[in-house]
Amino acid sequence: MDVDGWSASDIPDQSGRTAVVTGANSGIGYVTARELARRGARVVLACRDATRGKTAEERIRAEAPGADVLFAPLDLADLASVRAFAAEFPDRRLDLLINNAGVMALPERKTVDGFEMQFGTNHLGHFALTGLLLPRLRAAGRGARVVSVSSWLHFLGTVDPRDPNMEHRYRRWAAYGRSKSANLLFVHELSRRLAAEGSPVLAAAAHPGYAATNLQTKGALMEERAWLERLFELLNRTVARSAEAGAVPTLYAATAPEVGQGDFFGPGVPKKSPRAPWTRDSRAAAGLWETSERLTGVTYAWSPPR
Fold first, then answer.
1. What is the pLDDT of residue 228?
2. Catalytic residue ranges
3. Domains of the chain
């Protein structure tokens, strides 16, 4: 898993720390959860599908003997599920929240709550989850982190505040790019607010580059477009990085001591990743934050500045 001199073997000891990884049943999320568990963390596998989640739990125990892992149900496309996960979370403190799960380039679909599926899952579900778990992250104190997994495809565009759910005209790849820009805008504003209250909690972001996971083929499967599914399978075999390599930027953002507030990493860590200028637009980030609170009903509580 070496990437420009940094690998999973460089992860500091995580003993005594608790991590939540969304979408941990496959791909980058699975590798992230496994490697954190190997370094001693207690890892909660937050997954929508119970069968796949429990299978991942068993696989990690087999690949990392002695690993402390636990499956817990979480459907980011259903805010009731997000609230239930947070309410039933067994630990009083939480050290790492890895907002990894996502969907990509789906045909037009809605979440349980009526949001465009990619915006609702990739951004709003994680926005709500982070807000509900933030008190536990604060309780962990120094070393607590939130890491959101974006994509280099965030360059496709940013959120339209007049139509965040793309009700006027839906385009699957534009919707995906906007949801990934939303991830970075979220981290930008979360970092600003954490710094303003003097919190030790750190927010950062990462992206895997083009990594071979099942994310690429889901949209084609839903529409039964076999030719597109075969194309992505071919690209995954011949062009894409492995899921192990794709997880390295996330693991670096989650554990490396050099990471700063609001940093964004891609392939080639510890070098920071380029990002679109609109993902640093503080006015847009604040506007998206207000919209997200209104849509999800999750309002973050902030302490007075220290």
1. 46
2. 176
3. 14-208+248-296 (3.40.50.720)
